[in-house]
């Protein structure tokens, strides 16, 4: 349980930073939201008190989980009785594997841009701000298009703890620092993060994510 709760949370945070580096306009928009919320509160540190106001942050994390589900094949299940699914007979004690990765990349569920990082898709009108449109009420485990933690009574019991942990960590990184890729060996700045995947307990970046952090203060 400790390994599952730490490794998946860390890799999701790493994927989020990688996607933000590859999409500078999204990173700027998210930093503006985080700094505006916590700047108004006068807090010198990011706390849990205002996480509920960070609507675009939640959209960024949902989009990261959609594209980079921590566990692409969910924990195996087993049928308890003979059943029929879409015309197919499924005997009792059949081992079932759910491909969460394929579901979250399916154009039938997510449109032609299913493979792209578009946090605005999580708002009703695609505007990406609370003023432009309310967030979709698509929560973890309540919609079969979005199952990074499984669903129903057998969903991951740690989902409710993982989401606030990632929100707090990511908003802290973006509030206190500006981020960019380091120069390459030739002195030129690399423009993109390599998004190649390496499979283990969770799916993580194949290459180490090395970034330059520049301190920021209000």
Largest β sheet strand count, sense and barrel closure: 2 strands, antiparallel
Please name the CATH topology: Cytochrome p450
Widest sheet: strand ordering: 1-4
Bulk shape = globular
The CATH superfamily is Cytochrome P450
Please give a structural write-up:
This protein has one domain (2-70, 107-215): Orthogonal Bundle (Cytochrome p450), CATH 1.10.630.10. Helix content is 36%, strand content 11%. The chain contains 6 helices and 8 strands, in the order αααββββαααββββ. It has helices at residues 2-22, 24-41, 55-67, 100-104, 107-110, 159-176; strands spanning 77-78, 83-85, 88-90, 95-96, 177-180, 197-199, 203-205, 212-215. Helix 1 crosses helix 3 (55-67).
Topology of helices and strands:
Elements: H1 2-22, H2 24-41, H3 55-67, E1 77-78, E2 83-85, E3 88-90, E4 95-96, H4 100-104, H5 107-110, H6 159-176, E5 177-180, E6 197-199, E7 203-205, E8 212-215
Antiparallel strand pairs: 1-4, 2-3, 5-8, 6-7
Helix pairs in contact: 1-3, 1-6, 2-3
């Amino acid at each position: 349980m400790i390994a599952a709760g730490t490794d998946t949370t860390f890799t999701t945070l790493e994927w989020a930073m990688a996607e933000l580096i590859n999409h500078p306009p999204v990173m700027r928009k998210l930093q503006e939201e985080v700094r505006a919320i916590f700047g108004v509160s006068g807090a010198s540190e990011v706390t849990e008190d205002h996480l509920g106001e960070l609507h675009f942050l939640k959209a960024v994390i949902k989009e990261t989980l959609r594209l980079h589900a921590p566990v692409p094949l969910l924990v195996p299940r087993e049928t308890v009785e003979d059943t029929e699914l879409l015309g197919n007979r499924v005997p009792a004690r059949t081992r079932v594997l759910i491909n969460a990765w394929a579901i979250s990349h399916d154009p039938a569920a997510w449109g032609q841009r299913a493979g792209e990082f578009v946090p605005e898709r999580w708002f009703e009108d695609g505007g990406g701000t609370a003023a432009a449109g309310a967030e979709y009420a698509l929560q973890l485990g309540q919609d079969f298009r979005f199952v990074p933690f499984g669903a129903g009574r057998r969903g991951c019991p740690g989902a409710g703890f993982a989401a606030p942990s990632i929100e707090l960590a990511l908003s802290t990184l973006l509030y206190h620092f500006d981020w960019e890729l380091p120069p390459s060996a030739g002195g030129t700045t690399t423009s993109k993060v390599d998004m190649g995947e390496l499979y283990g307990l969770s799916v993580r970046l194949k290459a180490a994510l090395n970034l330059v952090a520049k301190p920021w203060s209000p």
